[in-house]
Amino acid sequence: MPNGGSLRITTRLNSELNLVEIFIKDTGVGIKPEHRRRIFAPFFTTKKVGEGTGLGLTVSYGIVTNYGGTIDIETITEEEEKKNHGTTFIIRLPVYKSKQGG
Ligand SMILES: Nc1ncnc2c1ncn2[C@@H]1O[C@H](COP(=O)(O)OP(=O)(O)OP(=O)(O)O)[C@@H](O)[C@H]1O
Ligand SMILES: [Mg+2]
């Protein structure tokens, strides 16, 4: 969020689908349509040299999928909608019951 904004993280149990859902929602600049398909690719970054490696989302994707989860995004830029711009990452992780019942 180069121009400031708020970041809200919420979680909920989706007991119907047996998933934990994590929403990471910001009111930042959003992700441009032409970048959306590339953000999980290693070394893809729109930051200046020295500011970002382009590995943050690649690593996040690897961790989440290793746990059998998924990451989805909803994003809207200021050009698309002046007021409600920002990005939400939605992580869904499967819930496993331990044998001890804990
Ligand atoms: N919440 C977000 N809002 C707007 N753009 C985002 C957001 N998250 C990621 N992006 C875009 O996706 C690109 C890739 O993100 P990623 O986290 O993989 O790398 P980075 O943030 O550029 O660098 P690093 O995380 O390695 O420091 C970013 O450069 C940015 O263009
Ligand atoms: Mg990053």
Describe the overall structure.
The protein has 102 residues and is mainly β. The protein is 11% helix and 31% strand. The chain has one domain (7-94): Histidine kinase-like ATPase, C-terminal domain (Heat Shock Protein 90), CATH 3.30.565.10. It contains one helix and four strands; from the N terminus they run E-E-H-E-E. A four-stranded antiparallel beta sheet has the order 1-2-4-3, with helices on one face. It is globular, with a radius of gyration of 16 Å. The model has no long low-confidence stretch (mean pLDDT 95). Magnesium ion binds at residues 52, 56. The site of adenosine-5'-triphosphate (ATP) has 19 residues, from helix 1.
Compact description:
The protein is built from one helix and four strands, in the order E-E-H-E-E.
Name given to the CATH architecture: 2-Layer Sandwich
Largest β-sheet summary:
4 strands, antiparallel
Order of helices and strands: EEHEE
Q: What hetero molecules are bound to the protein chains?
A: adenosine-5'-triphosphate, magnesium ion
**Termini gap:** 39 Å
Q: Give the averaged pLDDT, no decimals.
A: 95
The CATH first-level class comes to Alpha Beta
Care to count the β-strands? Answer: 4
What CATH calls the topology is Heat Shock Protein 90
Main sheet strand line-up: 1-2-4-3
Q: Find the CATH superfamily.
A: Histidine kinase-like ATPase, C-terminal domain
Number of self-contained structural domains = 1
Structural class computed from helices and strand pairing: mainly beta
| Low-pLDDT ranges | none
* Radius of gyration, in angstroms, nearest whole number: 16 Å
- Helix tally? 1
Tertiary shape:
globular
Bin the strand percentage. Answer: 25-35%
The helical percent reads 10-25%
